[in-house]
Amino acid sequence: MRKLTYYVATSIDGFIADPAGGYDFFPIKPDVMGAMNAERPETVPTQFRAAVGIADAPNRCYDTILMGRHSYTPALDAGITSPYAHLRQYVFSRTLTNDDPAVELVAGDALATVRKLKEEQAGLGIWLCGGGQLASQLLPEIDELVIKQHPVLLGRGIPLFAEATDPKTFALGTVRPFESGSVVLTYTRAL
To answer: How do residues 50-107 score in pLDDT, each as one tens digit?
Structure first.
C-alpha cells in the first residue's frame, strides 16, 4: 500500500498560512531549502526546478500530489495550470474548472479518492501539499507528517488541520534542527 504524507510548512504556533491564505512570510533559508530539495526534489514546482539546479532530478519520495483549492489557486493566478507537471496532480475542489489534462479535478469524496490511490500497487508515495481543510478530511489516511516548522509566530491564520478531529496519535520519528532556526519534524501514525 502506498503512503500518504502531509508535507507542509508551519509557523511555531501551527499555522500553514495567514488568515488571507498567504504564506510568503515563511523564510526561504538556504540550509533548509538545500536539504529539502536534495531529499524531496519533487516538491519543487516544475517551473522553478531549473533555477534551483534540480531540473532533471528524479522523484525520490512522491509521484502524486494532492492539493486543495487554496493550495492550487496561486499557480492559477500566475497563469500556471500544471504546477507540478513531474507528478500526477489531483486538485480537490467543488468550484474550480480546469482544461489542463495533466491536473485531475476531484469534486467528490476526497477520502474515497485517496483510499483508491493508496491501494495502487506500483508507485512512490502520495504528497498532501495542503491545505488545512483537505488535511482534516484526509486525516484517517495520513500515514506520515513532515512538518517544516519555521521560527515565525502568526497568532492566527489557517491551521495545520482546519477542523476539529478525533484525537489521533503519531509517533515522533526525527527532529532535524537547522542553523537558521527552522526544524523539520517527522511523525508516523502510531498503531
So the answer is: 999 999 999 999 999 999 999 999 999 999 999 999 999 999 999 988 889 999 999 9
Taking the C-alpha atoms of residue 64 and residue 61, their distance in angstroms, rounded to an integer, is 9
Q: What is the mean pLDDT of residues 166-183?
A: 94
Cα 85 from Cα 74, distance rounded (Å): 15
| Residues of the domain holding 57 | 29-163
Mean pLDDT for 157-175 is 90
How far apart are the C-alpha atoms of 185 and 172, rounded to whole Å?
Answer: 8
Identify the CATH number of the domain in which residue 33 sits.
3.40.430.10
Taking the model in full, what pTM does it have? Answer: 0.95
Domain count of the chain? 1
Beta carbons of 105 and 98 less than 8 angstroms apart = yes
Q: What are phi and psi of 81, to 5 degrees?
A: -95, -15
